[in-house]
Batch of 2 targets.
Target 1
Amino acid sequence: MEKILTNTPNNKYQHIQTAHCENGVVTVLLRHHGLDFINEPLAFGIGAGIFYVHLPFLKVNNAPAIAFRIMPGFIFRDACKALGVKVKRKKFRSPEAARLFLDQKINEGQPVGCQVGVFNLPYFPREYRFHFNAHNIIVHGFENGRYIVSDPIMEDLTSLSPEELEDVRFARGPLAPKGQIYFPINIKQVSEEQLKKAIKKGIRKSTWWMTQVPSQLIGARAFNYTAKKIRKWRDKFGERKGGLYLAQIVRMQEEIGTGGGGFRFIFAAFLEQAAEILGNDKLIPFSEEFTKSGDLLRANAVRMAAIIKGRKTQQQNFNEVAEAMSEIGELEFQTFKKLRKLSL
Amino acid sequence: MKKDKLPQDPSALNKVTREVCYVKDDGSKYEQSLSTGWKVKADALDEAWKEINRRIEDARIAVEKGEKSPVLFFMELNLMDFPTLSGYTGFWKFSIKRHMKPKVFRKLSEKKLGIYAKAFKISIDELKSFDGKNIDKYTK
């Protein structure tokens, strides 16, 4: 195949760096199709990305699964649905068929999203390569024997050889991508009315997830559940393993892809934009509350780091972390409840 | 987060990219800003890696003592857990656990060894001959 680049109407849309990969893919693909208003906080908010969950029985990298964001794939699905954009998805059994289809799409000038595993992604530093299979990249074209790739968390465009791309598209294990490829079809212009509706829908959905799910493991209540667990970790597992579990929380909360403060700052930015688009100033105080929540989470990360590094390892230190966790949970629960009652 | 509070600490990402964070100042709006890293999360990542290396070392010793087969060592070396290795090999968890017994491992067919070797990206000989010594080439 010779040199091919998807002909974007405006070249700068080939790559947009964002905090989170899924938001980035939504942003770039929709902008490519002329929906210029979309940006990361909007994609995240409309896709109802904010979340909290603690699954003690599920282990990720030998520590309990904790997430500050909704399940992989949901942001893309919900954001496109709310904006009336249809998405075509395709999985493959054979790598050859997967490559043929990809080539065909970029030949047609259509940039496509690909689900990939991180473990074999060559441009990532080794320290960040875990078996996480729900990373998203956009393939833009083919040049000098390599695919042009826009990875939303990278500052610049990058590239992968056909073999490398096949490797990451067919990573195995939990959430195996199976070469999944996806792209929007039939895009119509989104009217202002529709955008407003989509924003309201996103807010409504987030408040539902955070306050209405009848489980102590999901939503704002789950912060309190985590707090209860943290209090027991030192006695149950000892300082080292307890510290490792805390390290898991810190990483899920602050690592690259979160925008800082467990996605709370992105959500606060979304509410700020929502206030402007909806012409509703009542949303501004809510945005400030989530900024506060993010700041509290970061302050708690500093506390946890002291335990992780072995500077402070008393039960009292674990209790302080737990205390802060409950406090954040209470703040988020009340804020989401009020937000749910707010007439938008 | 306040704009001037955005940390710019060294991290493992430094040669690769900076990351986007969302910051704002009093009275202004949220905006994107780039950060090189944050000491706090670098510590957390560092600790996670220490644990991984500890697990690899434990596995190496177990293989050296003849308590476990090389499958365990290469599983830990590749940061895999049972669901992941299951995904790559198609074996069930209990089969993999069985294959970790040296006695069972010695009797594995070439075909099964080949499947493991492919999952670990090594040759069958390397897998078979691993005795828990000379691991420098794996831990670059």
Note: Residues 39-64 of chain B form the longest helix (26 residues).
Target 2
Amino acid sequence: MAEDRKVAFICSKGTLDMAYPALVMGWAALGNGIDVTIFFTFWGMDLINKNRVDKLEIAPVANTSMKMTMMGVNTGNLGIPNLMGVLPGMTAFATKLMKDKMKELEVPPVSEYLQMLVDAGAKLYACKMSVDMMGLKKEDFVDGVIDIVTASDFMDMTDGAQIIFI
Amino acid sequence: MATRTIAGKTVAVNEEGFMTNPAEWTQEIAVEIAKEEGIEELTEAHWKVINFCREVGAASGKAPTLRTITNGAGITTKEMFTLFPKGPAKKVAHIAGLGKPEGCV
């Protein structure tokens, strides 16, 4: 392994399932002595938004990988019908299922996980354009977000890093 | 299986240099491997973590993950990265004569 290996993640999604990839891989990278930078943009802003991070959800609508069996109904490969997914409470239900499963596997909730990464030395940055678009301020972010930067700044600070877009 | 001599004792190691038989471990070996990992002196805080990992290793046969250490040994993530910089769980497992920790958290 290169002595000075660097990995940078771009988090552009704000759903519960898409919050985890950067957290898991970032944590693994830090555990291997690799420098980690995470840039949050667009819907990914929810991951660092104090008011949003504990309320991330996963919707069963148009999610072809989500099967009925995950809800404890033994129906093999049958998906959750989209028509059923639109019923009130279905998103909350799917979210609860996923959160319970994560808890069972002792995977920390997103906010706690993010704090672990910060404590381990990960550098978090918020995207300037998204901040402007969503009318957010630095105070809206969780501890550990270093600054609000432009895409160009991000390119400068990730010189030589492997970049992973999520 | 490869062997190597650490602190005057010949022990079995795997291809990554992790000891494969925790029973062969001694405190002198820990001091020696720590130096190789760039930790010149093992302080009381280091030993607290090493001993915790030895206990977990003895009970489960596996090296604890970083989260298991922070949850179980009463130490924060920050302190772990200060005591064992750049990959603390792996480093402490190496020093404690255990295998590489498995698991994603």
Note: Chain A is about 35% helix and 15% strand.
